[in-house]
Amino acid sequence: MDAFFCVEALEEAIDLFGVPAIFNTDQGSQFTSKIFINTLLENKIQISMDSRGRAYNNIYIERFLKYENIYLNCYDSLKELEKGINRYFEFYNTKRFHQSLDYNVPDNYYFGVFKNAVIA
């Protein structure tokens, strides 16, 4: 992967979805190149980079998304992928019971509405 490809992808994403507030990457040479960094700075995007040698920083969320959603669906476009992931997180937070939360959904915990939990 080269820096020019990454800049083109970034510019296309900006055109389609708008300018993000922050952009997180690893420290690959394509992301630390002057052309990529300058593209972020020109668009006033805050730069966030994982620590050097931290290839495993996002492994849990990446694996979770891939196995729980992406591999189970056949998305034909980036827009479909985005909608599918948004639907999944909506399900995950509002309908999927979690054993670790006493069989509540995360939103119940976040908003303080509990089904089974005893609140002292």
Characterise the protein shown here:
The chain has 120 residues and is mainly alpha-helical. It has 2 domains: 3-49; 59-111, no CATH class. The chain contains 6 helices and 2 strands; from the N terminus they run αβααβααα. It has helices spanning 3-17, 29-32, 34-42, 59-68, 78-94, 106-111; strands at residues 22-25, 46-49. The chain has a two-stranded parallel ribbon with strand order 1-2. The radius of gyration is 19 Å and the shape is elongated.
Write the layout of secondary structure elements.
Layout: H1 3-17, E1 22-25, H2 29-32, H3 34-42, E2 46-49, H4 59-68, H5 78-94, H6 106-111
Parallel strand pairs: 1-2
Nutshell version of this structure?
51% of the residues lie in helices and 7% in strands. It has helices at 3-17, 29-32, 34-42, 59-68, 78-94, 106-111, and strands at residues 22-25, 46-49.
Radius of gyration: 19 Å
Order of helices and strands: HEHHEHHH
With helices defined by DSSP (H or I, 4 residues minimum), what is the helix count?
6
- Oligomeric state, counting identical vs distinct chains: single chain
Low-confidence stretches: none
Distance between the termini: 55 Å
Secondary-structure class? mainly alpha
Major β-sheet, in short?
2 strands, parallel
> How many structural domains are formed by the residues?
2
Count of DSSP strands: 2
